[in-house]
Amino acid sequence: MQRHLFSFLAASTVLVLLHVATARDLRNVVEPKTPQTCTSLKASGEDDTKAIQKALDPCTKGKAVALSSGVFHSGPLTIPSGVSLLVEEGVTLRALTDPTLYDTGAKTCGTIDEYGVGCKAFITMHGAKGSGIYGKGTIDGRGSSIMTGKNITWWHLASNAAAVHKFQNNPRLIQINNSVDITVHQITLINSPMYHLVASETHGFTVWGITILTRPSALNSDGIDPIGSQNVTIAHCNISTGDDNIAIKALTAPAKHISVLNNHFNRGDGMAIGSETNYGVSDVTVSGLTINGTHVGVYVKSNTMRGGLVANISFENVCISNARQPISLDMDYYHHHGNRTPEFRNITLSNIRVLTNGTFIIHGMNKSNTIEVAFNDVHVTKGAYWSVRNAKIKGSWVEDETGHSCGYAGNENLLPYS
Ligand SMILES: *[C@@H]1O[C@H](CO)[C@@H](O)[C@H](O)[C@H]1NC(C)=O
Ligand SMILES: *[C@@H]1O[C@H](CO)[C@@H](O)[C@H](O)[C@H]1NC(C)=O
Ligand SMILES: *[C@@H]1O[C@H](CO)[C@@H](O)[C@H](O)[C@H]1NC(C)=O
Ligand SMILES: *[C@@H]1O[C@H](CO)[C@@H](O)[C@H](O)[C@H]1NC(C)=O
Ligand SMILES: *[C@@H]1O[C@H](CO)[C@@H](O)[C@H](O)[C@H]1NC(C)=O
Ligand SMILES: *[C@@H]1O[C@H](CO)[C@@H](O)[C@H](O)[C@H]1NC(C)=O
Ligand SMILES: *[C@@H]1O[C@H](CO)[C@@H](O)[C@H](O)[C@H]1NC(C)=O
Ligand SMILES: *[C@@H]1O[C@H](CO)[C@@H](O)[C@H](O)[C@H]1NC(C)=O
Ligand SMILES: *[C@@H]1O[C@H](CO)[C@@H](O)[C@H](O)[C@H]1NC(C)=O
Questions:
Q1: Ligand 1: distance of its center to the CA of 25 in Å?
Q2: Residue 315: its pLDDT value, please?
Q3: Per the CB 3.0–4.6 Å rule, which of 87, 92, 103, 343 could disulfide with 135?
Q4: Which residues does 249 contact at the CB level (< 8 Å), separation at least 6?
């Protein structure tokens, strides 16, 4: 009895220490709890935009509007401060496909132009505190559906735009701006016409146990993008999409104190930091990540067009298979040149396993602006191709990996999968 108790206490202590050592979000984050319901709605089978918005607006702070049965069809929605949306298991919230509903005023939503900012998001939070999206239901952006009044799909518009080096005006699925303590829990997000879940300049952002499942051919369909946000935890998510699975950016404000814990990626462009590093990205830990089938695995990118200091970045307990570029740390991303100075300092790779062949990139800017990376227990397969330049490297990788399975990358006890 006593010995069991002792080993239990010893084990808990180790877990607590590990947690402190690993998490970078300064908050103490635990699995979110679904709020109580203020109103429950059933789908009408018609346009439910007004019904949902009418329920959200007066909902008591701290509570949620529950979508409790059926398939809801809706245009853009705004979640007020303090209020949450709960999409219950078996329920789907589907975005209407009429671009005019999302238009920001210039009548460009659903067209191609030089800017790509003509649509508002399907779900918006702005200046919110303590809002969230919860539930085991699904939010469907319908990127593969023909737009109302047009003859092509949102995704087709995106590939047409890419073909002429312009931008599609497509709605993002969820856009959170200038908010505090926002939670996204359990929900499944599919088929966004554009990025799935973006949090700009948000302090306190917890994304826990969500699934993103979108076709790899969907251009610009990033999974989760914290942009200029701080105190962020993204844990236990399963992401498969057509662009960066997670992209941490600092386009308009610094991004820091970010924990990315125990996630799994299938298709996508990988775990990215940048290329918008302008205001600096620091104190990021990515721990317990399994990847199977992304283009790039771990991706830190900037260039002299962006600039910014990228520092104190730790990737640990990561296992990668079937990625063309399992690791790419690139200060000269796409050779886009400007007059800013990117700096990559104190990037650590620890306990990394790469099970399949690929190209590894470690590119500093030049002899006087090198990239600083430390390798610790990094195992790759024999014959992998390494392109290394302008780099100050501590430690090295070992070409001895022969495994065929990732498991949970070795830290399944850190935060139990729920
Ligand atoms: C991050 O969280 C810590 C701990 O709760 C808090 O003290 C700090 O103010 C937060 N940072 C921001 C930018 O909100
Ligand atoms: C869609 O409509 C445009 C004109 O608005 C036409 O040029 C184009 O061929 C049509 N595409 C398809 C796939 O029908
Ligand atoms: C949210 O911020 C983005 C820039 O990060 C901006 O493009 C967008 O217009 C903002 N949306 C709202 C509703 O303020
Ligand atoms: C992730 O989601 C995919 C597709 O739904 C599923 O096949 C896979 O088992 C999930 N993986 C994990 C680790 O949950
Ligand atoms: C480097 O980053 C690690 C965390 O990733 C941090 O613990 C350490 O203090 C940093 N070292 C320096 C010299 O900044
Ligand atoms: C990196 O971490 C060290 C040690 O915690 C800290 O002193 C330094 O300010 C951090 N760098 C940045 C850019 O935040
Ligand atoms: C190295 O790159 C930096 C920009 O990161 C630039 O300011 C500097 O002039 C370059 N130095 C050399 C020797 O090319
Ligand atoms: C993969 O590994 C083999 C040796 O096992 C090597 O001959 C080949 O060039 C490698 N391919 C790539 C793309 O790195
Ligand atoms: C990666 O996924 C493929 C199926 O797409 C599967 O056959 C393979 O075993 C997976 N590899 C690992 C290491 O999980």
A1: 8
A2: 98
A3: 87
A4: 225, 226, 227, 228, 255, 273, 274, 275, 276, 277, 281
Domain assignment present for 191: yes
Tell me which residue has its CA closest to atom 10 in ligand 4. Answer: 238
Pocket of ligand 6, candidates 312, 313, 314, 348: which has the most ligand atoms within 8 Å of its Cβ, to mutate? Answer: 312
Pocket test for ligand 4, best of 263, 266, 291, 412 (most atoms within 8 A of CB): 266
Q: What is the rounded CA–CA span in Å between residue 198 and residue 251?
A: 13
pLDDT at 413: 42
- Which residue range(s) make up the domain with 75? 45-231
211 and 289 inside one domain: no
Do 198 and 287 sit in the same domain of this protein? no
Distance 237 CA to ligand 4 centre (A): 9
Per-residue confidence band for 2, with pLDDT thresholds at 50, 70 and 90 = very low
pTM for the whole thing? 0.93
Residue 3 and residue 120 in one domain: no
Residue 406: the pLDDT is 87
Does any domain span residue 61? yes
